[in-house]
UniProtKB/TrEMBL annotation:
Catalyzes the conversion of L-aspartate-beta-semialdehyde (L-Asa) to L-homoserine (L-Hse), the third step in the biosynthesis of amino acids that derive from aspartate (the aspartate family of amino acids), including methioinine and threonine, the latter of which is a precursor to isoleucine; production of homoserine leads to a branch-point in the pathway as it can either be O-phosphorylated for processing to threonine, or O-acylated for processing to methionine. L-homoserine binds at residue 218. Keywords: Amino-acid biosynthesis, Methionine biosynthesis, NADP, Oxidoreductase, Threonine biosynthesis. Its cofactor is a metal cation. This is Homoserine dehydrogenase. Pathway: Amino-acid biosynthesis; L-methionine biosynthesis via de novo pathway; L-homoserine from L-aspartate: step 3/3; Amino-acid biosynthesis; L-threonine biosynthesis; L-threonine from L-aspartate: step 3/5. The keyword Nucleus does not apply.
Length: 371
């Protein structure tokens, strides 16, 4: 029987998602090490945050990473040096980007061209410029060339199988006509708690803080409230459906950031001042209530008409979108094959563990391909 091959794992980002991923990785690694005949075993060789890193020059596996990264005094390396370090590893490498950093995203083509595979929940790589999107996929192998593999399931709907489903629809020749629903765990949680269908609900600003504390928001919650997070997800889905969307700001996106707070210099200052605007949100809620409706933050991609939009809409209380709970997303694919009854995916759309699950599942897909 051939000896199992070592696959080296490098992780950038150890926040809410990163920590959950590392815990799932250790479960996966120990499961693999106990299964007879496994073709590979996993070694964590790199872990970094924005300032610090832990790694060994001789590619020895990292142990006790949690304390290690906490107490490390080693500065992180520039991305070009990280790439050089990983390229020289004595085996295949998978880079796991658990940041929301644009520079890391911009460097994917470089890593991929060197044969390093990537799995990530970072939306910025796939919703930045169309040129970056093309560069990433022309540098990747995904079955054809010599580059690394890339998967990004958790960049839309966290661990929910949204991207894999859309790819399956497109690759099997279905025609996607419309994709619509609730694409943000934060926005879902905010409106489900601020205006539940049963009445009552908390103050909008307090729910924003709750969403942040639960790990649903982007590192800066303004990236959720300005609609850009949903716009990024729709950009990704629209591109996968065949539309050449130039950027997440190339279509109408409604922002919930009050004008007066657009100039806040930090996310913390923004959260501190947000309660001053609770009355404005209450007004929207009361207006909807008078019509017997609730407000929810939704988005849609209309493929034949090449239209994408993101913003608030009112829904009857009996509508499935109105009845969502917690951080649930609901995503409906209207296609030629599915006709009037769309294919629907629903479930938690944010949170460390459910997001890390999509990343870990992508890692398993890469491992199968590396085999
Ligand atoms: N949270 C969720 O529910 C979901 C998140 N995602 C995506 O997952 C990613 C991570 O989110 P989350 O874990 O919540 O974010 P956090 O803010 O909790 O963690 C981000 C981590 O990335 C690190 N980081 C930031 N910039 C860099 C950099 N340039 N180099 C190295 N490390 C860096 C941070 O380090 P430091 O602490 O030093 O700043 C931190 O460890 C994001 O792209 C997000 O959009 C996707 C779906 C759902
Ligand atoms: N902030 C995002 C995280 C997942 O993509 C959200 O709330 O949906
Ligand atoms: Na997903």
């Amino acid at each position: 029987m051939p000896l199992p091959r070592q696959v080296f794992i490098a992780v950038i980002g150890a926040g809410g998602v990163g920590k959950c991923f590392l815990s799932q990785l250790s479960g996966l690694a120990s499961k693999l090490s106990q299964s007879p005949g496994t073709p590979y075993y996993l070694s964590l060789i790199w872990l970094s945050t924005s300032k610090k890193a832990i790694y060994h020059a001789d590619y020895k596996s990292l142990s006790n990473w949690e304390a290690g990264i906490e107490t490390s005094t080693k500065p992180t390396l520039p991305l070009s040096e990280l790439c050089e370090y990983l390229v020289k590893a004595p085996g295949k490498v998978v880079l796991v980007d658990n940041t929301s950093n644009q520079d890391v995203a911009d460097s994917y083509p470089t890593f991929l061209k060197k044969g390093i595979s990537i799995v990530t929940p970072n939306k910025k790589a796939f919703s930045g410029s169309y040129e970056l999107w093309q560069n990433i996929f022309s540098s990747a192998s995904n079955g054809t060339g010599i580059g690394g593999y890339i998967f990004h399931e958790s960049s839309v709907g966290a661990g929910l199988p949204v991207i894999s489903t859309l790819k399956d629809l497109v690759e099997t020749g279905d025609q996607v006509q419309k994709i619509e629903g609730v694409f943000s765990g934060t926005m879902s949680f905010l409106f489900n708690s601020f205006q539940p269908t049963s009445g009552g609900g908390g103050k909008f600003s307090a729910e924003v803080t709750n969403a942040k504390n639960k790990g649903y928001t982007e590192p800066d919650a303004r990236d959720d409230l300005n609609g850009l997070d949903v716009a990024r997800k729709l950009t990704i889905l629209a591109r996968l459906a065949g539309l050449k969307v130039e950027s997440p700001t190339s279509f109408p996106v409604q922002s919930l950031i009050p004008k007066e707070l657009e100039s806040c210099s930090s996310g913390d200052e923004f959260l501190q001042r947000l309660p001053e605007f609770d009355d404005q949100m209450d007004q929207l809620k009361n207006d909807a209530e008078k019509e017997g409706k609730v407000i929810r933050f939704v988005g849609s991609v209309d493929v034949p008409n090449n239209k994408v939009k993101v913003g608030l809409e009112k829904f009857d209380k009996s509508h499935p979108i109105a009845a969502l709970k917690g951080s649930d997303n609901i995503i409906a694919f209207y296609t030629k094959r599915y006709g009037d009854n769309p294919l629907i995916i629903q479930g938690a759309g944010a949170g460390g563990d459910v997001t890390a699950m999509g990343v870990t599942a992508d890692l398993v897909k890469v491992l199968r391909l590396l085999n």
